[in-house]
């Protein structure tokens, strides 16, 4: 029986090729979140959460306090902004560079329960006379210090007491060769400062150039220790930072004088051209323990000669004047300058002025009243007068020297006596007698 196809046209339904969903109700985007919050008391939990958060922030405020360096003699305020930089430079340098390398807290606020992170600092020439005293202060306040020194004038004995301290590192390296470190601050002290040493190995600016390059690469703050020798044989007395100096560019001392002047130029060029944070200190005559015994500088010469029962050698007529600051005063000034907001340059020295004959008399009083004075021909380009005007340092970084020559000299004599003769007992007795 054949199949039969039956077509019922009246029973078929019209088909449509398109699908039409329900039309979107007006205000659905507003009413749906409201319905969601009202269901199952969700709105109540939102208010409870807000109340708890308000209570926590009221009881435990998170406002930051200024950093106070432990074991230091002064309070260090770390600024929240670099007001003297242009806008693009301010954006480049965040407070992470001042609160610790790699800090994940760029706003400068320290989270609850966390202590201030110590800085990572490199001190070039850190095994030298001034550098080793600076390292002592930085370690004491809790920073990590890397000393870079080639030991041309520095001595390992100056920093041996830090060996074994996890916050201390020593690298034997000459800064005229490049060096890559991750640090927050750079104190650049590496440079022979006495005539005996810088005439034997003339100063060049390659080390300063390398350290400025390092500061640029890692975003570190850079402090240059310049010198009062940039004023040469000054025609202005006392010397202000605005004085440009009177320097012989081809004299026997010019390798040092002009080297430091060029270093200041490079420092300011890196600041203006590359946005490097810089500080410049112009250091006047400094004395104290750990000073090189036979470096040709007048205080160390007089003290060593008096202890050895030799005549005190005065060059020229002895009327040349110098100003002498104790090393602890200088270190305080360097740290205040580094942590402050001002570039400089700043004169760091003691404005107390002494002639060479007056200095010889003070050494006689302290060591040996019978010590003789011997006059010799004066050296070439020897400045006739040297006295700092420190009004700018007083006003802007709150610094001035505290230790007088008659108070600080016996401390240096005690150190020299011990190093020359190895006499601990006699040195301490002399120190006590002189101080009293």
Automatic annotation (TrEMBL):
UniProt region (Disordered), positions on chain: 1-24
GO cellular component, one term: Golgi cisterna membrane
Protein name: UDP-glucuronate decarboxylase
Pathway(s) of this molecule: Nucleotide-sugar biosynthesis; UDP-alpha-D-xylose biosynthesis; UDP-alpha-D-xylose from UDP-alpha-D-glucuronate: step 1/1
Listed Gene3D superfamilies: NAD(P)-binding Rossmann-like Domain
Cofactors demanded by this protein: NAD(+)
Enzyme nomenclature, EC number: 4.1.1.35
Subcellular location: Golgi apparatus, Golgi stack membrane
Topology with respect to the bilayer: Single-pass type II membrane protein
Keywords on record: Decarboxylase, Golgi apparatus, Lyase, Membrane, NAD, Transmembrane, Transmembrane helix
Single GO BP term: D-xylose metabolic process
Main location: Golgi
Domain NAD(P)-binding: 123-410
Stated role: Catalyzes the NAD-dependent decarboxylation of UDP-glucuronic acid to UDP-xylose. Necessary for the biosynthesis of the core tetrasaccharide in glycosaminoglycan biosynthesis.
Pfam families: GDP_Man_Dehyd (PF16363)
């Amino acid at each position: 029986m054949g199949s039969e196809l039956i077509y019922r046209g009246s029973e078929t339904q019209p088909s449509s090729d398109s699908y039409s969903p329900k039309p979107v109700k007006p205000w659905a985007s507003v009413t749906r979140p409201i319905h969601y919050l009202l269901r199952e008391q969700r709105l109540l939990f939102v208010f409870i959460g807000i109340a708890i958060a308000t209570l926590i922030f009221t009881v435990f405020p998170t406002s930051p306090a200024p950093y106070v360096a432990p074991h230091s003699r002064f309070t260090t305020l770390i600024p929240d902004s670099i007001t003297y930089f242009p806008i693009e430079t301010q954006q480049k340098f965040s407070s992470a560079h001042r609160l610790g390398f790699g800090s994940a807290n760029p706003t400068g606020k320290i989270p609850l329960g966390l202590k201030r992170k110590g800085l990572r600092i490199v001190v070039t020439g850190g095994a030298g006379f001034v550098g080793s005293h600076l390292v002592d202060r930085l370690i004491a306040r809790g920073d990590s210090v890397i000393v870079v020194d080639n030991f041309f004038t520095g001595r390992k004995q100056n920093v041996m007491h830090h060996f074994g301290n996890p916050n201390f590192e020593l690298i034997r390296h000459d800064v005229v060769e490049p060096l890559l470190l991750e640090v927050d601050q750079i104190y650049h002290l590496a440079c022979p400062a006495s005539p005996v040493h810088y005439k034997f190995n003339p100063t060049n600016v390659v080390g300063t150039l390398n350290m400025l390059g390092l500061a640029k690469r890692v975003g570190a703050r850079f402090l240059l220790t310049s010198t009062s020798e940039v004023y040469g044989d000054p025609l202005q007395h006392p010397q202000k930072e605005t004085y440009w100096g009177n320097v012989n560019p081809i004299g026997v001392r010019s390798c040092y004088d002009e080297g430091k002047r060029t270093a200041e130029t490079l420092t300011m060029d890196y600041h203006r051209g590359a946005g490097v944070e810089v500080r410049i200190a112009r250091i006047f005559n400094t004395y104290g323990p750990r000073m090189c015994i036979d470096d040709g500088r007048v205080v160390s010469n007089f003290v060593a000669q008096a202890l050895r029962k030799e005549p005190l050698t005065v060059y020229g007529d002895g009327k040349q004047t110098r100003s002498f600051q104790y090393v602890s005063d200088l270190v305080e000034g360097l740290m205040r300058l580094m942590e402050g907001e001002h570039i400089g340059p700043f004169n760091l020295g003691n404005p107390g002025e002494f002639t060479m004959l007056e200095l010889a008399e003070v050494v006689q009083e302290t060591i040996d009243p019978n010590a003789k004075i011997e006059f010799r021909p004066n050296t070439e380009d020897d400045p006739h007068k040297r006295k700092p005007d420190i009004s700018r340092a007083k006003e802007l970084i709150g610094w001035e020297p505290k230790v007088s020559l008659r108070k600080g000299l016996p401390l240096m004599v005690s150190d020299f006596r011990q190093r020359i003769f190895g006499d601990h007992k006699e040195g301490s007795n002399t120190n006590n007698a002189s101080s009293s």
